Amino acid sequence: MRGDERVDLAKKIHDRTAKIAVIGIGYVGLPLSIEIARAGFETVGIDTDESRVAGVHRGKSFIGDIKDSDLAAVRDKFTATTGFEVLASCDIVNICVPTPFTTCKDPDLRYIKDAGLQVAKYFKAGQLVVLRSTSYPGTTEEFLAAILSCDGNRKVGSDYYLSFVPERLDPGSDKFNTKNTPVVVGGVTKACTDLSKAFYETFVDEVIPVSSPRVAEMSKLLENIFRSVNIALVNEMAMMCEWMGNIDVWEVIKAASSKPFGYKEFHPGPGIGGHCILIDPYYLAWKAREYGFHSEFIELAAKTNESMPDFVAGRIIETLGINGIASSNAKLLILGVAFKGNVEDTRHSPAIEVMKIIQDKVSSIEYHDPLVSELSEQIPGHPYKSVPLTEEALKSADLVVILTDHKGVDPDFVFEHSRLILDARNAIKRRDAKKLYTLGNRPVKR
């Protein structure tokens, strides 16, 4: 038992003399690194993406939620590198790498594996390792611990410490950030939990310890699957209202939201995107099958959400047709291609899926997004670039389709200068206009 090393690490945390590493300085890792450095810790970000490392060195943020001034404020405490050898001198390591799924929708843990192997290679006795990447229950104790323990030669809780702290981000939010969002901490042993809690309390307002990494891992999945299921519910309600006719789903939602208890408002849309909500149901479903349990309800919700781009693409064709416009001759202007409003993140964006489905069915597509300048990587072979949002661009489009509602796009300006609009986000709050269609209203000649 290395009690002296545990006491030493606890003291270093208290004194802010512990050296911290963050593996992966993307959407999770960069904001985390900034907060740790603000708390006074010497912090190093490690990333295989040389452009991210160069951005830190230049003081140029590559994430919308982090400003250049945020990097400037911690330049004496935060640096970045592509070299993992720095881990040998770090007291605490946070792993913030992607956890995608395979083409068969099974968990893909290669990035966690790669990070774990590097931590094991440059092992420092008494080190605390914190996994932040969302995954199935058991990943920390069954998968990562096996790598770090090196065939049983190192014991968790004495030779090193290990915990899971799920990330909680609300990209584009003006209200919630790394510091003021409570975090859950689950350590493999009590000592692991205590050290992790002590560390995170230095830069997060509220830290909630739980009994194990599995509880923490499952809590993260529950948070995201709760959203997935409820979004699927309102998406299905929107389709139902459309088929029934004369029922505005947005008016229904507003009316239901007047109830002060037992209801939480969710909105329909062209689908779900980002790195978590789309993927997490399949992580849990995969793990559940190991125990002979089939999560049919959760998987059905995920499939409902995944079907929405096809539904919206169909609505585009219907809206054009009912207004006497042949889709093969139609020019579309898409407003917003990020996966949600006020972020630049296009990962699994439903707007891009709609574009992929519809691009060969119409004459041409242009898009405008104030935060996404081009889609050269997202849609190979079609080098789409954002066009300015002008009167001419709106008036020349046969149909303007709102797929992502950014604050930087004036809905009144769009409404005034467009000939025909399909609004999949309820960005335009008008219901008496003949040229405006929304989800939940079946296209009819107006």
Model description:
The chain has 446 residues and is of the alpha/beta class. Helices cover 38% and strands 12% of the residues. It contains 15 helices and 13 strands. The strands form 2 sheets. It has an 8-stranded mixed β-sheet with strand order 3-2-1-4-5-6-7-8, with helices on both faces. A 5-stranded parallel β-sheet has the order 10-9-11-12-13. The longest helix has 32 residues, at 213-244. The relative contact order is 0.09.
Q: How many structural domains in the coordinates?
A: 2
**Strand arrangement across the biggest beta sheet:** 3-2-1-4-5-6-7-8
- Helical/strand content category: alpha/beta
Task: Report the CATH architecture of the largest domain.
Answer: 3-Layer(aba) Sandwich
Can you count the beta strands?
A: 13
**Radius of gyration, whole Å:** 24 Å
Report the mean per-residue pLDDT as an integer: 94
Number of helices: 15
- Strand residue percentage: 5-15%
Q: Which H/E pattern describes the elements?
A: HEHEHHEEHEHEEHEHHHHHEHEHEHEE
Question: What characterizes the major β-sheet?
Answer: 8 strands, mixed
The helix fraction, in percent, is 25-40%
Spell out the CATH superfamily of the largest domain. Answer: NAD(P)-binding Rossmann-like Domain
- The rough form would be described as elongated
By CATH, the topology of the largest domain is: Rossmann fold
Poorly predicted runs of 5 or more residues:
none
